[in-house]
Design a protein that fits this description.
Helix 1 packs parallel to helix 2. By secondary structure, the chain is of the alpha/beta class. The chain has 4 helices and 6 strands, in the order E-H-E-H-E-H-E-H-E-E. Helices cover about 30% and strands about 20% of the residues.
Length: about 160
C-alpha cells in the first residue's frame, strides 16, 4: 500500500516585481500553511520522503507544514521538476519514487495538482485550493505501478475557519 500526500503551495504575493519562481507567500499564505500543518498533524502518518518544488512559495509552504508536523527541515528535498504546471513532471517524480517508500509527500503547483488528483484519485476536485492537502492511497507495492487510487482526505484552509 502506498500513500501520497499532495500539497498545493499557499497563497503567494504579487506585491513585488519578481519572476514567478521567486514569489514569496503573502500573510494569508503564511497563516494558511501553518493552520493546515496543525490540522493534518493528527490525521496522517509521517511521510518517509518529502519533496517540494524549488519555487520559493512551494518551499516556504513545505517548511511551515513540516514545522507543525515536527519534521526537521533538513528532510525536505527540492526538485526543480516539481515546478510543473501540467502534471507530466509531477507524474515522473511520483512514479520514480523508491518502492521502499510507503508514504510520500509532495509540495507543488496547479494545474499539475488538480490534474493529478483527478487523474489518480477517486474524488473529483474542480480546483485544488492554495495550501490544500490531498491524501490518496494506492493498492500497489511499487510507485511505478500506480493507477486509480482512493482519495482518503481533501481539506482546504477555508474548511478550517
Amino acid at each position: 500500500m502506498k500513500t501520497l500526500y499532495l500539497v498545493r503551495h499557499a497563497k503567494s504575493s504579487w506585491e513585488f516585481n519578481l519572476e514567478d519562481h521567486l514569489r514569496p507567500l503573502n500573510q494569508r499564505g503564511l497563516d494558511d500553511a501553518t493552520k493546515m500543518g496543525v490540522f493534518i498533524r493528527e490525521k496522517i502518518k509521517i511521510p518517509q520522503r518529502i519533496i517540494s518544488s524549488d519555487a520559493v512559495r512551494a518551499k516556504s509552504t513545505a517548511v511551515l507544514y513540516l514545522k507543525e508536523l515536527g519534521i526537521p527541515e533538513e528532510r525536505l528535498e527540492l526538485d526543480k521538476r516539481l515546478y510543473d504546471f501540467t502534471g507530466n513532471k509531477l507524474d515522473t517524480v511520483i512514479k520514480s519514487c523508491d518502492k521502499r517508500i510507503d508514504r510520500l509527500m509532495i509540495f507543488g503547483h496547479n494545474n499539475a495538482l488538480t490534474f493529478w488528483v483527478n487523474q489518480y484519485g477517486s474524488k473529483s476536485i474542480d480546483n485544488v485550493s492554495t495550501a490544500a492537502f490531498t491524501a490518496i492511497t494506492f493498492d500497489v507495492n511499487d510507485w511505478s505501478a500506480i493507477k486509480k487510487g482512493e482519495t482518503i482526505l481533501y481539506v482546504k484552509p477555508k474548511q478550517l475557519n
